[in-house]
Amino acid sequence: MLLKRSAKGDESAFTELYRRHQAPLYRFALRMTGNSWAAEEIVQDVFMTLVREPKKYDSERGTLGAFLYGVARNRVMKHLERAPRDVSLDERGDAGQEAHVELQEQMTPARWAELRERRDQVHAAVVELPPEFREAIVLCELEEMSYDEAARILDCPVGTIRSRLHRGRALLLAKLEMLREVPKRAKVGR
Amino acid sequence: MTCEEFATAGLDLGEAEEDGLLQRAAREHLRGCPHCAALHENWLALREDLRALGAETAEAETPSRVEMRLRQEFRTRHKTVKRQRVAVIGGWSLAAAAALFCAFTFVNWRIQKGGSGVQRRGTAVESAASQERSSQLSKGITPVGSELGDVLVTSSASGDFTLLPGSMPPAPEDATVVRVQMQRAALGALGLTVNEEHAGDWIQVDLLVGDDGLPQAVRLPQVSTQSTD
Predict the structure, then answer these.
(1) Cβ-Cβ contacts under 8 Å, B73 against chain A
(2) Which of A52, A85, A118 is the last residue of a domain?
(3) Do A181 and A145 lie in a common domain?
(4) Which of A48, B13, B79, B146 is the most exposed place for a label (fewest CB within 10 A)?
(5) Is A123 contained in some domain?
């Protein structure tokens, strides 16, 4: 309904549509690319598609949300193809998504720094996963979607999601293990 | 459950809760296998980190400048589309008006042409009728003076006559047609050129005589040629 109104030139309908869908799409793009500028551009591209070619969406093939995720996913893949490994841990700071690990009563600054470092490592490990595993991890672990929802968005069977998740988790564990081993070895070396 | 099976399904313990058998088998395996227990522990820690990472960016939203840019684009696009639509409608309206105007002009022209044709036809009919009348008059021959030979009275009939040089066409009501027989050479006296080889031939001639008694025009009737031996 909103899309129909938007296609007819109703700006408020388009704005409503944008506000309803932009946040999950942005988060997905941000977590997939690890780059806020790229995520911003991707979301903009997705909605530009909706402005320019609203007829591309076929309601019989699924929900508008899934369609937008699909478009976002294509844009993300294109972005990753263009700039495969240009993500650094510092980009999170650039993105304005400053970590807000809440200081609990028992949390000392040292503990906070340790947690921060650990999350940075996790983030780096996620961003370095191959895209197909990364999107499964992003959707199911970070977005906490069900396997069914993820399968609908990625347009693949639930079994594929399961296996991608399994391999993604294994890769993540291995990568994190490696990342944690390096400082330990460095310390021992000294 | 083997280590491999646990690695495949065991990490999903949380999601496999509904599968009691699998869960029980995985837990049993965990109790007996320190490697898998460590793996599982690592996974749980990682999962917590992932959730925390997710929570960190859970509130992340596209910057408002994107919305502004998109709305601007939306406005521009739909204004352009509207303008295009108006231009197309305007173009078609103009074309339709032009076609209507042309059709109206053509119909008007046809009507005017038809009217003038009728008028012309009317005039032609009228003139034909008057000619008919005059010819009927000229055919209605009445002898007026026998001493002049066959005298014909007509109001017109000057159409077939050849004006004699230096004479003016007489008014139809003042003219009289006189049929005479004369030698062809006599036509020379009236100012007409005559073929000398046939100068002696006798011919019948209609003379259009004015009210002054002088011939004004001459006509050679088709039936009346007579030659003298």
Answers:
(1) 48, 51
(2) A85
(3) yes
(4) B146
(5) yes
Higher pLDDT, residue A139 or B211? A139
Domain extent listing, chain B:
3-56, 63-139, 146-219
CA quadruple B119, B121, B123, B125: dihedral positive or negative? negative
Q: Which domain range does residue A114 map to?
A: 106-190
Distances (CA, A) of B201 to B157, B163, B184, B197, B207: 26, 22, 6, 9, 17
Q: What percent of chain A has pLDDT over 70?
A: 81
d(CA A144, CA A147) in angstroms, rounded, equals: 9
Q: How far apart are CA A78 and CA A69, in angstroms?
A: 14
B110 touches chain A (CB under 8 A): no
pTM: 0.56
Mapping DSSP to helix (H, G, I), strand (E, B) and coil, where does residue A42 land?
helix
Identity of the residue in A51, A100, A144 whose CB atom sits nearest the CB atom of B56: A100
Higher pLDDT, A187 or B89: B89
- Contact across the interface for A162 and B54, Cβ inside 8 Å: no
Nearest to B49 among A11, A23, A118 (CB): A118
Name the domain count of chain A.
Answer: 2
Residue A99 lies in a domain: no
Predicted confidence (pLDDT) per residue in B108-136, tens digit: 888 887 766 555 555 555 555 555 555 54
- A15 and A70, same domain (yes or no): yes
Q: What tens digit of pLDDT does each residue of A76-132 get?
A: 999 988 875 554 444 444 444 444 444 455 567 887 888 888 888 888 888 889 989
Size of interface A-B (CB pairs under 8 A): 104
d(CA A95, CA A93): 5
Residue B208 touches partner A, C-beta closer than 8 Å: no
